[in-house]
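REQUEST ID: PR-0412
SUBMITTED BY: lab tech R.K.
PRIORITY: routine
TASK: structure prediction, single protein chain
INPUT:
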Amino acid sequence: MTTLAGIGTFVPEARVSIESYAEEFDLTPMQVRVFRRYHKLGSAARSDESLTGLLRLALEDLALSEEQRVRVRYVLYARTFPVVVPYPRNPLHDALAAVGLGHAQAFAVGQQACASGLLAIDLAGRLLAADGDDGLAIVLAGEKAFTGEARFVPETSMFGEGAAACLVAASGERDRLLAYVARLRGEFDGDLDEVAQEFQRIYHDALGEAVTAAVARAGLGLDDIAVILPHNVNQVAWQRTCKRIGFPLDRVLLEHVAAIGHVFCADAFINHRTAVERGLLRPGDRYVIAAAGAGRGATFSAMVFEH
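STATUS: complete
OUTPUT:
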């Protein structure tokens, strides 16, 4: 059974405010206030590090032993955007070489945009199970907010810079994967206004359905879930989703939304690290990691784990 064997993160201290975006994205004072007071989005993390540096710092924080390092067979780079640096640069391979993981088979997973982190966990577990030995995999996440589209989603979210590295094993006693559900919605492929409006209309119901379906597939009910670790899009999205499914909002870890923003596919792992450090997860607790991705269609996904 797939397990999360360790998590490393890097979140820079520097922040960029929503007010600093006003001129670039033609935001009115009222729109800025709506972001701060309604969406609870005030700032996003920024770093002077290159993308290679972000990934390297997360890998270093994972603090692999030499025995673990040798066993790492796969590295799956989960990312939101299909292209993150100009050709022929390759920050993934550069970061791996810098930390002694150049021997691993490394590739990117980005087919489900911001939900690609959960897809990467599932793929890592399948690869390790097929090998049938004591190999390990790493799911790596984190991107630079290098374009306007990668910095800001109008009326929705701010992207933050940071990175996370998750060590995945085929089995273990802690953070065991109990269920995974991914709902793929190809009808949301395209940039037409009516497509975007329909996506916003169904968003909360679709995300909530993915969560409840994953919980049911694990043989559990929502009352059995200690906490939901969300993607950090905005607080209103989670208020509405929780209302749809009848889950207490105070059991969704939302403290990073206002401070660091939506850190692409790294949200799940950053939130997991915080939940463990704050004692929100005790041995035996069941929890959900949920995410939604838009681009080349839409994906709503959720995983249930036992800590």
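NOTES: The domain at 3-169 is CATH 3.40.47.10 (Peroxisomal Thiolase; Chain A, domain 1).
REVIEWED BY: pending
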